[in-house]
């Protein structure tokens, strides 16, 4: 990691005659520093019509830079009050992580209390708004038809991006918040993972892992939700849930599957036990290769196993998804099921404070939660799951 960006900032402070490019940008080795004014004009003064969403970190606007480039501008909420140096260290780290399946951070703005991130803009918005009927910014999002080839590449591309974060990025990154709204889709519906590396920009007591579900916490690995054990395998679990959403076209935040009002992972396991897995597949998917879809479901089940050490690595997941491998289902064990508060909301699309918590209060949640992890202490070795 290089720190020449600090030199440039210091230089700006000390020497107001430093020449800036026309758009008010100082360019560092790989992070562009935008002036607040330039972002204000890119978003027409942060006009509500430029707003494309809001999440746990703040509000996101669509902006157009002077050269015509579309960008997503994420204005971080006030809690991110890190000093300039610490903030830039993290920003520099994030922008060094580049992969075709990761949303590229273009630059940032640090002026006064403003902390703003500028990302490449993805035309097809998030998987949540494209595939799942989700309430985003108060309105039900548009449902776009995704055929199987598109869904398959969304799964594989996301797996590639996550495998890169886990195994090739330097330093390696546990995402912590893999979910449909953090998978952005470009104009060809190729997926890019957003919001990686952001957790460090916020102090520990600030809510940043927002599960954003009403009723059931859909993506959290039980050992992470209940015990705070954050490993790459927690991401693998979330990725498995995401795959089930892609295949079923249903949100994991629903608790409406079957007569027992199960959550998606539970429901999938039940269907598997009863030999009815075909019922999981999105009825809107008419033409699909049955064997491949079944393999994808099996991979998702391997990922969501209760015992974290039984779950494959993301590299193994990539292998399992990209090749016609035979998966040894005898090694498959029950999924881990974490349920947060019960609420009356069944659709679970909106933001719910009940499903949102910081690391600090996770222990309290555990008392009110239920966990199903019969294989939690299983000692089977991970390598046994390798595709044959
Ligand atoms: N680079 C981008 N290009 C296009 N749209 C984006 C981009 N980044 C975010 N968005 C959209 O902005 C909205 C808000 O994103 P944001 O990341 O703030 O919230 P979230 O993903 O719903 O929750 P969280 O804060 O937990 O990540 C999402 O609906 C997403 O589709
Ligand atoms: Mg997000």
From TrEMBL:
The keyword Transferase applies. CDD domains: STKc_IRAK. The lineage of its organism: Eukaryota, Viridiplantae, Streptophyta, Embryophyta, Tracheophyta. Residues 345-356, 369-388 have a biased composition (Polar residues). Pfam families: PK_Tyr_Ser-Thr (PF07714). Belongs to the protein kinase superfamily. InterPro entries: CR_Ser/Thr_kinase, Kinase-like_dom_sf, Prot_kinase_dom, Protein_kinase_ATP_BS, Ser-Thr/Tyr_kinase_cat_dom, Ser/Thr_kinase_AS. Keywords: ATP-binding, Kinase, Nucleotide-binding, Serine/threonine-protein kinase, Transferase. Residues 46-327 form the Protein kinase domain. SMART domains: S_TKc (SM00220). ATP binds at residue 74. PANTHER family: CYSTEINE-RICH RECEPTOR-LIKE PROTEIN KINASE 3. Residues 342-388 are annotated as: Disordered. Coiled coil: none annotated. GO terms for cellular component: membrane. It comes from Cucumis melo. The keyword Secreted does not apply. GO terms for molecular function: ATP binding; protein serine/threonine kinase activity. This is Serine/threonine-protein kinase isoform X1.
